[in-house]
Amino acid sequence: MSAQKFLQDLEKKLWTAADKLRSTLDAAQYKHAVLGLFFVKYVSDAFDIRRQELIAQFQNEDHDYYLNPGDYDSDAEYQAEIAAELEIRDYYTEKNVFWVPQLARWETLQNNSKLPPGSEIVIKNGKESVYTIRSVGRLIDDALEAIEKDNPKLKGVLNKQYGRLQIDQAKLGELIDLIATIPFVHESLQAKDILGHVYEYFLGQFALAEGKKGGQFYTPKSIVTLIVEMLQPFSGRVYDPAMGSGGFFVQSEQFIKEHGGKLGNVSIYGQEYNHTTWQLAAMNMVIRGLDFNFGKEPANTFTNDQHLDLRADFVMANPPFNMKEWDTGVADDDPRWQYGKPPSGNANFAWLQHMLYHLAPGGSLGLLLANGSMSSNTNTEGDIRRALVENDLVECMVALPGQLFTNTQIPACIWFLTRNKKARGTLADRSGKVLFIDARNLGYMKDRVLRDFKSEDIQRVAGVFHAWQKGEGYADEAGFCCSATLEEIKKHDFVLTPGRYVGAADEVEDGEPFAEKMARLTAQLQEQFARSSELEGEIKRNLAGLGYEC
């Protein structure tokens, strides 16, 4: 079975099964319950894989860790020594595998989650101790607490709320059994790839289930992919100041792997205000084995910047659109407002300037904003946009189709900015020019309310952008893309809506003379009017037969 088919079958099976268990919790709570257990499953499985490696090494006389059976008086003594060695933490940490205490190992959770309250189990971590089961939720919380205690890197990352969930405890036991069925074996996929995919899929499904609130932690994959494909973050520092669950980092990892790059060449920096979302992002990174710096704590990007000295090579974000009352506690002369103080009533240009402030001299940024940011002259917004254009910072504007987001119907666009448009490497000199792309007609309706990009849509937009950057093979296309000069933008009063520049697409001539076409269409319309009249009469007669007149 291909990897793609394997993953598609798996995600459908798991979501269908998991959704049946969601009877008493809302999607937001259930999300944390499911994803937290995914995390325990991952660290426990990674721990078990390392244990199996060690057992093989202890018995391999060519390996440095070999334990010679001849050195022991009996096989029982030999097996006891192997068991003792398996509990030495350094064997795991040397391979960047999290140490999982026995209470938190998956087999402990699965084997004991059906026990009645008051049951006692023996836990052996070097020395034996007795653990008393109070509830499944409390068992999971204590398991998470034990993982955090033994792995300082995970401090504060795990959501220990299971004991307080208003859910039938038996449902948690069923959830553990369900997650235990995830097959982590495939000929071309590693265990962390499979679980990482499932984690991301569930994030998307939960975002749909939560509706408007779902957009606070999840950006649709196709939009994230489009921005990543355009910016191509092969190496350097990648930063997202409104990271949600970390989608841009996950997609950057995917991009690097697909293009043969090295993950170690990228450093990840993020910030998130919502505590539980910050935890989701941290787990998302750990599951994929990605190092990250999300600051000391969840915090407000505007009032408690966690990366003050960071200058990133790539900055990507999907912040809340048109956020109001964002500037309490922010100084009017904050150094980030180099191009003008953003208005209190809208944070769009605050996000943009914050990202620009953290951009390295040769760096690039991609930012999703509401369409109003391209044309608004409310308060200082028009002046800031003009300053950005006049300083030649805007590189590309992309107008997106509607209905791409689960949480809002507000039309959106992507701003791409760079501090350096001069020729360098494979890039041509783009000084004094801005590329406009009108992608509103791309994509397809994936269901009744949501639109999505096809892979070829993403490649088309990214391909045009890269051709323009390199000065090779690019040409304006009416209705789709246009390279405009700063003088032309000035004539449009610094409005950056792509539709103003790309114009209308050329109509394809169908060869039918105008007079003949009008005659044909008029006759067709008359037939439809006549049919409409017949149906109206028929409906009225039927209603009259039932005693209703209209």
Automatic annotation (TrEMBL):
Q: Where is the N6 adenine-specific DNA methyltransferase N-terminal domain?
A: 10-179
Give its E.C. classification number.
2.1.1.72
Q: Can the keyword Transit peptide be found in this entry's annotation?
A: no
Which keywords annotate this record?
Methyltransferase, Restriction system, S-adenosyl-L-methionine, Transferase
Q: Which part of the chain is the DNA methylase adenine-specific domain?
A: 191-509
Catalytic activity from the UniProt record: a 2'-deoxyadenosine in DNA + S-adenosyl-L-methionine = an N(6)-methyl-2'-deoxyadenosine in DNA + S-adenosyl-L-homocysteine + H(+)
> What name has this protein been given in UniProt?
site-specific DNA-methyltransferase (adenine-specific)
Q: Which organism is it from?
A: Desulfuromonas soudanensis
